[in-house]
Structure formats: C-alpha cells, structure tokens
Recover the amino acids of this structure.
C-alpha cells in the first residue's frame, strides 16, 4: 500500500510539473514593416562576393590585392558609412568603423569577417566568385560565412544614416580579414578597446541562425542565439616501442595499444551537462514541444539519463551541445607496412564544453586510458568562452529583432560548438552573443566551408532587416 501511494505521488508530481511547463512569454508579433531597398543590398553583397578574399594558413598563398579591392569598393557600395563613420585599420586586416552616438554610454559592437576559406573550384557546379544569381539564389564562397553579415551590418548602417538616424550610444562595426585562420584582427580591436577603456553594452557575431526541425517536438522555426562557444584543442597520444620486423611482433604493438586507447575514449564519453547554455535551450524550446518531450524536459531531475543515453547513441549536434566531444582524426605509424613503428601517434580533436577546460580534458584522457605506455599531451587552441548573461538589454534587443524579422520564431539561447572571433571579447564583456542573421536550411548549411555555397535572396534581405531593427534599438 505504501509503495502504491508513493508511486501515485510520483506520477502526480511528474504530470503536474509537465502541465505547468508552458511557454513563459508570447512570441512577439510586430507587423510593422521596414521599407528599404533590398535589391540594392543584394547587389552590394554580390560585389563583395566577387572579391577573392581567401585566407590560407600559408600566408604566401594569399592575394593582398583582393582584400584591398574589397576595402576600396566600400565607398562606392556604402557611401554614407564610409563618409560619416570614422575608420581605423589594424593588423590582421581588421576594420573598425565608429558611429558616434547622441550621448555617452556603453557602445554596441557588430562583428563579421570578410575573409573566406579556400575553394576547390573543380568540385563546384557554379562559379565560386561570380555571385551568380539563378532562381532567386546567389551562389558563391562567403554567401553564408560570413559576407552576408558583413554586408548586412554595413547595409543597415547605410540605410539608417540615409534616414538621418543617430544611435543613442556609440556603435562599432568590427570586421576581421583573417578569422578563418585565427588571425589577430579581432584581438587587435579588443586591445584597442582596452586601451581606450571601452566596455561594450553587447557584442554580436556569427553563430546561431533561424532554423527548423532541429529540436524534438517543436514545429516552429527556432532562432538560436549562442551565449557561449566551446573551446578547441588537439590531444596527442604517443606510444613508443623497440620497433622491429613485423614478422615477429610483440604481444602489443604501438598501433594496437593506441587503438585500444581510442576505443576506451569512445566508450567513455565526457560527462553530459544539462545546465548552462544547453539548459537554457532545453528550458525555452522544451516548453513548446509535444507532451512526451515536455515531460522529459520538465523533469530533468528524473529523466536526464534518458536524454544522456539518446545523445550518446546518436552523436551529432545534440550530443555536442551537452558534453565535451572527442573525434579521433589522425594516426601515424610506420613508414613501411612490414616494420613495427618505434613510435606511433594518434590525434583527437576535442571540442571543450564550458564546464571543462584543456587541463581537465588531458586529465580525463589519462584517467580513462590508464596506460603507462601511452603519453598524453594537449595542444590547446582555445579555451571555452565565458557564458554570457541573458538578463540584459543586449539579449532582449537581439531577441526582439529576431522575432520581428522572422515572424513566429521562437528565440532560445544555445551553445555554439564552433569557435569564432567573438571569444576575444570575453576579457571586456559578459554580454557576447553569437547569431548569424539568416534563416537557413540543413541543405544550405552544407555549403559552409563546403562546395556550392549559396543563399536565397530573401535571406540576404532578412539579414539587412534584422540589423536595421537591432541598430535602431541601440
């Protein structure tokens, strides 16, 4: 009898919490339209795409003339911006436009990068740098990453200046020409802000987007705003032996021991974290999901193990949101097939959850592998960013601009699983947000850093509209 009563109470608690787990606010429905010349700013993007601003790890392969050609085009494409805003240039092909506000106060910073990754043109079905437009789609490297936002920021500024608008507080446009290779541009701008004692009210850079069918049980489009980004590092496993002829190997070769270590790591993933950015996403979107999923997300104290198990089994985006991920990508052994290597190595690319660090990652590898024959070393590229506040005007401004631009969109925080230039701003702001102002499909996303990158013209116009709405609040 006691067991039955406990069971009834348990079920009642689960159901009550589920029924109370409803959306906390209504989606904004501002039908006020903004009149601007969208076709003009489609053409400005086309001119920007035609500049082959390709970044290479080997700088000798870069064409400086193409980068300067783009900068030289700006007065023609955005005459008000280049005439009325002060421009400073920094190392790393960084551009900083300063728009003076009506009064003193913390400025807003709008970021983008205008360099792009290399192209294997023989694998493209459309020209990569001609900005070809067919059936209301523009093709070209950078149409999504991130010349669309570079264009959107400048176009919004151009439009507002033409209407005589002056922001209440200062606004900065901070652009890098070397983001794709981790160039110093963004850091140089941050150092300038530090020297001048400038603390941004908020920073917005590339990151999430408006997407559909990405969260279980949610039918609405979701506007995902990154409030943090994962860190990145390589973990190198090295195993040594006496080598020798492959005809008489020892019981365990270096390659065999490394393979065993690889399997151990894959079978013992890092701990899942359902708080922080992922927790905010589950809380916002889970409330709009179907009843079964709402039951899970409303009672994570009881059902988080189900979600954890699902993430482990399926991998992919959802798994990457909740834990530090490990992807073994390289292995090196003998120079000949019949020689046992005196040294073999394996490399894992690790994307670090904000709850972890490069130090805890290396320690966890050592703990799980637990083999004195294997040396574990870390090559840290970037630590995880800080988690930004959402209880501030900057996040509210971004949320409103998304909801007003893409009607019916549910806005939620999330964890960006890639790295961006915005991480440099951690040292001067706790309000750094990552949202690429575009609505994209899963098919379009494949073009980022891939072949046949393209964007719908309606998305280009929405990008401009979003930045107009956001800047108008500054």
């Amino acid at each position: 009898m006691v067991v039955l009563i406990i069971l009834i109470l348990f079920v009642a608690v689960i159901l009550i919490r589920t029924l109370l787990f409803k959306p906390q606010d209504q989606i904004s429905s501002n039908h006020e339209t903004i009149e601007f010349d969208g076709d003009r700013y489609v053409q400005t993007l086309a001119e920007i795409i035609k500049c082959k601003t390709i970044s290479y790890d080997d700088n000798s392969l870069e064409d400086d003339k193409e980068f300067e050609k783009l900068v030289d085009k700006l007065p023609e494409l955005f005459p008000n911006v280049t005439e009325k805003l002060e421009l400073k240039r920094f190392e790393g092909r960084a551009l900083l436009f300063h728009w003076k506000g009506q009064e003193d106060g913390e400025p807003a910073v709008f970021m983008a990068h205008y360099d792009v990754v290399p192209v294997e043109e023989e694998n493209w079905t459309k020209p990569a740098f001609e900005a070809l437009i067919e059936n209301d789609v523009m093709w070209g490297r950078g149409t999504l990453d991130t010349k669309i936002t570079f264009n959107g920021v400048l176009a919004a500024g151009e439009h507002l200046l033409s209407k005589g608008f002056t922001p209440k507080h200062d606004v900065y446009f901070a652009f890098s020409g070397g983001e794709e290779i981790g160039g110093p541009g963004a850091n140089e701008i941050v150092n300038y802000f530090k020297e001048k004692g400038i603390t941004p009210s908020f920073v917005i850079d590339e990151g999430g987007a408006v997407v559909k069918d990405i969260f279980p049980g949610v039918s609405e489009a979701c506007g995902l705003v990154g409030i943090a980004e994962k860190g990145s590092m390589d973990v190198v496993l090295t195993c040594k032996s006496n080598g020798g002829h492959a005809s008489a190997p020892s019981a365990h070769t270096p390659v065999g021991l490394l393979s065993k270590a690889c399997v151990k790591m894959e079978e013992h993933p890092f701990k899942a974290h359902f708080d922080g950015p992922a927790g905010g996403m589950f809380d916002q979107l889970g409330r709009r999901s179907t009843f079964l999923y709402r039951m899970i997300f409303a009672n994570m104290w009881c059902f988080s193990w189900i979600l954890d198990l699902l993430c482990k089994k399926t991998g992919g985006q959802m798994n990457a949101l909740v834990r530090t991920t490990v992807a073994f990508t390289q292995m090196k052994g003998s120079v000949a097939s019949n020689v046992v290597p005196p040294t073999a190595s394996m490399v894992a690319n690790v994307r670090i959850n904000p709850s972890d660090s490069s130090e805890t990652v290396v320690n966890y590898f050592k703990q799980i592998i637990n083999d004195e024959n294997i040396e574990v070393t870390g090559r840290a590229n970037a630590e995880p960013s800080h988690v930004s506040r959402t209880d501030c005007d900057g996040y509210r401004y971004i949320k409103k601009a998304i909801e007003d631009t893409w009607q019916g969109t549910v806005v939620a925080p999330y964890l960006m699983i890639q790295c961006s230039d915005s991480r440099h701003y951690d040292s001067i702001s706790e309000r750094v947000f990552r949202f690429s102002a575009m609505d994209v499909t899963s098919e379009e996303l494949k073009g980022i850093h891939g072949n046949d990158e393209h964007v719908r013209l309606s998305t280009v116009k929405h990008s401009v509209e979003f930045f107009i709405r956001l800047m108008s609040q500054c």
Residues 38 and 461 are 5 Å apart (CA to CA). The mean pLDDT is 94. Residues 2-20 form the longest helix (19 residues). The longest strand covers residues 202-211.
